[in-house]
Amino acid sequence: MTRIEKTVFISYRHTNAFLALAISQSLTHSGFDVFFDYQGIASGDFERVILENIRARAHFLVLLTPSALERCDTPGDWLRREIEEALAIRRNVVPLMLEGFDFGEPAIISKLTGKLAVLKSYNGMTVPVEYFDAAMTKLRDKFLNVPLDAVLHPASKFAEQAAKDQQAAAAAAPRVKHRELNTEKWFERGVNAGDLDEAIRCFTETLRLNPEIMEAYYERSRVRARKGDLAGALEDCIAAIQLKPGNAEADYCRGFVHAQTGDLAGALKNYTAAIQSKPKYAEAYYERGCVRVQTGDLAGALEDYTAVIWLRPDDAEAYIDRGTLRAMKNDLAGTLEDYTAAIRMNPKSADAYYHRGSVRVQMGDHTGALEDYTAVIRMKPEYAQAYYHRGSVRVQTGDLAGALEDYTAVIRLKPENAEAYIKRSILRAKKCDFTGALKDCMAAIWKAMQKVTGLLKR
Q1: Domain-embedded: residue 320
Q2: Is residue 267 situated within a structural domain?
């Protein structure tokens, strides 16, 4: 027999803590039994408490903002695990869409992979901060006032006590004010801003309303770094670390700033600190790998790129970078394997095809190399180097007419390329076009002289 249940689990990111608390306070006031991780649960007990409380409650609310799904492609991400658990045991899943969230955005779609893909088909509702009370009425009367056949699993005494502790802490918390909800609104606007200056304005407003929001300092530092304001970015990183020492994101951003300023030792130290705080931080491994390449530590960089691939098996760029390192170590078989994997992950990656073509040339696979260079040209008709290398392979396979076309294409795209003139000159001479060959020789000499003159002027 179906029944109306008044038990709710709230799933959310820390950056939306005020909104989660406000929803909890509103529903609790209306007689609902609400669980959400308000104070934090000891790491050793976290999984047990969270999963048991999802199973013990009929309704599952997930707070969705532009930043909420950012880490959902990271193995072990808890927001993802919570959603997947609720879907698997057929709870009444209600997506609450907040400031700027849109299931149709490419950045959102890219995170809704695997079991999460069905989330966008659920009937959700928008929660405008300006009309929060009206939204809560709609939530209670329409989305939670539904008969359910869900099989609820009583939580253990331990998980039930943990829930009571969280509820008591939430009940003792001051009632969330509109100013606090506005803080989160401005933060999400910053995350969703397409313009860097607008993003900085939004994060600055967030910090004006609440200077204790560590994530706002972190996000503003990232934007400032992209604008080239490295001093401001570093200042924000330090502020974030002071608010929350040992924060992986702040250490990561500080490492990025140090790398941009050429302080590679400092960057390595910060990226390593980020990884120690968050051992599955794929971005930190990737950036540390890039720095290690610059310092000549190829073995260390290879380990870091391998860690990225383990954490994000669909990361085409990590495969390309590891493939490049393997090529530097003359591991052609490994290099070919990585570039092929990158193409499998991203069939539109012209760079992956280009690099694989170069490896196939070294391995004597001229047919494969021609296919790869042709794929590059099909995707990027202005890719001069692809024409150049395809021309070289065509010479080796005896297709002189095709090679002549390719070198002509290089000259059209890069008129300053002296080598292309020389290559075309040789082909023209073989075809007894001595006038054309002489013109190309003279052009090559002239281009080379211009290049030398330009270097001397520097």
Answers
A1: no
A2: no
- Burial code (b: 16+ CB inside 10 Å, e: under 16) for 379-407 equals beeebbebbbbbbbbbbeeebbeebbbbb
Q: Shortest CA distance to 424 belongs to which of 398, 451, 403?
A: 403
pLDDT in tens, 195-209: 899 999 999 999 998
Sequence-ordered list of residues with C-beta below 8 angstroms from that of 400, at least 6 positions apart, any chain: 394, 427, 430, 431
Helix pair 17-29, 178-192: axis angle to 10 deg: 140
| This prediction's pTM | 0.66
Tell the burial category of 120 from Cβ atoms under 10 Å away from its Cβ (0-12, 13-18, 19+). middle
Instruction: Write down the pLDDT at residue 326.
Output: 93
pLDDT in tens, 241-298: 888 887 888 888 888 888 888 899 999 999 999 999 888 888 899 999 999 999 999 9
- Structural domains of the chain, count: 1
End-to-end CA distance of the chain: 84
Place of tokens 């980020």: 274
* Residue 377 domain-assigned (yes or no): no
Q: Which domain holds residue 167?
A: 3-175
Which CATH number do you get for residue 116? 3.40.50.2300
Distance CA 233, CA 141 (A): 46
In a domain, residue 10? The reply is yes
* Nearest by Cα to 63 from 49, 89, 83: 83
- Tell the residue number behind the tokens 């770094």, with chain if given: 225
Exposed, middle or buried, 334 (CB in 10 Å: 0-12/13-18/19+)? middle
Other CB atoms closer than 10 Å to residue 283's CB: what's the count? 19
- Token output for 452: 């030398």
SS (H, E, C) 15-69: HHHHHHHHHHHHHHHCCCEEECCCCCCCHHHHHHHHHHHHHCCCEEEEEECCCCC
The partner residues of 96 in beta bridges, in order of sequence, read 63, 125
DSSP result, 298-333:
HHHHHHHHHHHHHH-TT-HHHHHHHHHHHHHTT-HH
In the chain, the amino acid numbered 76 is: G
Sign of the alpha-carbon torsion through 96, 99, 101, 102: positive
- Angle between helix 230-243 and helix 248-260 axes, rounded to 10 deg: 160
Tokens of 35: 């669980």
